[in-house]
Structures are given as C-alpha cells and as structure tokens.
Amino acid sequence: MRLKSSKVNEFRLWGLVLMLAGMGFMIAGTAAIVFKFPGSGIITGIGLVLGLITMLGSMAIYFWAGMLSTSAVQLQCPECGELTKMLGKTDRCMYCKTILTLDPSQARNS
User: Membrane spanning segments where (predicted)?
Assistant: First the structure.
C-alpha cells in the first residue's frame, strides 16, 4: 500500500513537479530583472541555469516514463474493466487504483 497510483503515473507526476519547479526558477530569475533587485544579473543567471537543469531533468523523466510505458504489460482491470498498463510484479490500475498482479503468489484470495 505504499503507492496511491500506478507506477507510470508516479513517474509522470515527478516529471511534472520538476517542470513546474524549473519554470518557477526561471520566472524568479526573470523577476529579479523586472523588479530591479541589486545583483539582478547574477540572480537571473542562477535562476535560468537552475530552471534549465530541472527542465532537462523533467524531460529525462518523461522520456524514461514513455520508454517504460511502451514495454509495459497491458491488461484489463477486473474492477473497472479499463485497459491499463502494469510495471513490475504488482501495480495499481491507472483509473480505479485497484492493486493488480500477474504473480499468483502475490494475489489475494477473494
């Protein structure tokens, strides 16, 4: 019960968080010039470089999640009937968050 959504969606969430953080760094760096802070050139440079690094990290995570998604096992969720992707031995449905497994030793007896 440590995950609340599917593994692919967790990777996408972290990619989104990094992208928004990168945009925030870039906006904060640009705001230093707009509001004429002392040393605004240095603050802007640092903000833009940090923003670029986090945006590149976001791009790498999205690329990795996409590559994992192409090789993921597709199966139909027994609860909601939607076609979902599964990474590893256990995962959650992308739609209804039901725990799924292909390993009989991991399955719960109903």
Answer: 12-35, 41-65
